Amino acid sequence: MSKSEKNRRPSKADKHEAPPIDIGIGTSDRRKIADGLSHFLADSYTLYLMTHNFHWNITGPMFNSLHVMFEGQYTEQWTALDAIAERIRALGARAPGSYTEFAKLSSIDEQPSVEEHDWREMVRQLVVGNEAVCRTARKVLKTADAADDDPTVDLMTQRLNVHEKNAWMLRALLA
Ligand SMILES: [Fe+2]
């Protein structure tokens, strides 16, 4: 910010200054929940990218069915990323948005690249990834529930529904 921009900012006494956040959840609870959501966003982004990567690179007899299945999953996940990041913002925190931050925050270890024809390994990695996202969602859900943060509880419940179902459907392919 330049000096002149700084000078244009309202002073503390300015009656038009944004008031402190007062949504009925204390500052430390909001911070804790937002921190959990940042990890959840990183996990979700990592899984989104893995799923899209496999959509691009799969070859072989399973190409059509898995190319289409992965597309359905990454499209849904892409839309959810926005809701997760915006919940962090509504709680008053900054949403992480770089690969460096996501790599630090994510609980999903990126595996070495998979052979194009090895659809079983792709599916196995996505089962593991979807289940990791579920575990992180459960942690955030607990923290949010303890602070009566219903919108976050609701969001985590929706994401659990999606990722547990994805994990089941992917796992069924390996039976
Ligand atoms: Fe595509």
Q: In a nutshell, what does this entry contain?
A:
This protein is mostly helical and 175 residues long. Helix content is 71%, strand content 0%.
List the helices and strands and how they pair.
Layout (H helix, E strand, L loop, with lengths): L2 H6 L18 H31 L5 H28 L8 H7 L13 H28 L3 H24 L2
What is the CATH C level class, in words? Answer: Mainly Alpha
Give the C-alpha Rg: 20 Å
Q: What's the helix-strand series?
A: HHHHHH
User: Based on helices, strands and strand pairing, what is the structural class?
Assistant: mainly alpha
Bound molecules: fe (ii) ion
In the residues, how many domains can be counted? 1
CATH topology: Ferritin
Largest sheet: none
CATH superfamily (homologous) name = Ferritin, core subunit, four-helix bundle
Number of H/I helices: 6
Provide an overview of this structure.
With 175 residues, the protein is mainly α. The protein has one domain: Ferritin. The protein has helices spanning 3-8, 27-57, 63-90, 99-105, 119-146, 150-173. The mean pLDDT is 93. Fe (ii) ion (FE2) binds at residues 55, 71. Fe (ii) ion is lined by residues 55, 71.
